[in-house]
Amino acid sequence: MDPYLSIVIPIFNEEENIPALWSRLSNVLAGHFSDPGKSWEIIFTDDGSRDRSLAMLLEIAKGEPRVKVVEFSRNYGQHSAIFGAFAEVRGQIVVTLDADLQNPPEEIPKLVAKVEEGFDVVGGWRQGRQHNDSFFRTMPSKIVNAITRKTTGVFLHDYGCMLRAYRRNIVDAMLLCKERSSFIPALANSFAKRVTEVPVAHAERAAGTSKYGLWKLINLQFDLLTSFSLLPLQMLSVFGVITAAIGFLLFLGLVAYRFVHPEGTAQGVFTLFAILFFFVGCQFVAFGLLGEYIGRIYQEVRDRPRYMVKKVHQAQ
Length: 316
Hints:
The protein is an alpha/beta fold. Helices cover 49% and strands 15% of the residues. It has an eight-stranded mixed sheet with strand order 7-5-6-4-1-2-3-8, sandwiched between helices. Helix 2 links the parallel strand 2 and strand 3. It starts with a strand and ends with a strand.
């Protein structure tokens, strides 16, 4: 019989957090999902960990048949790890959770209750985050949230929170999407009819270091921009029209200035150079953005697997 709840947790070098994560998660499940009609399963994805994370997960799975461990052949990234676990889920409701305990497992029942009200996707809205994370974590997150609201047309305060709940049909729909670059919260909203969010607690990382550096956050921005919207290309077109209009007006102004002040044609040449360098710089930005789209098209047409599963571990 399929379980009622599936909990998906990507793991990458989290040996310091796994004991506390498992203890707190077990208490939550025992307290809220002990009825026969609310059975559960947990799918951990070991995303190529180089510490003792995999060994610790396998030890947990040996003593608990409702725990499954998906072992990747190497590190593929958080979103690929979540998709690897999605392929194994059997529950009616699927909850994703990070292993760093910044989003407490104790908040899971709150999201499940909201799905039971009839919502297809329920996101967590982190409370008090500004007191815990640095400017370099919160500012990119605000940018991601603003862009995602624009591209999806769904207003949510916090698209960056991984504590989220989905109906099984939404997960199945996402699995049909084979693109390599995908931002899961935005992808889920494209299939959902009813979407909401609930406030959830947010704490400092219990142990270890964040796996999301500045470069990964920037890459996430490009994933979002190029995977779900043509807005950047459209903005380039608008910018090109405006630039052409400004250039034409500047040309007319220089011609008029030549007739009025023929002796002063050499004046302002450095201003023109400054304007020229500005627009040359804009062109390089445009080339880079076009290259980003073309590069991602190249990745997609190669049709390589999003990830490789080495083995799926589960006690019988």
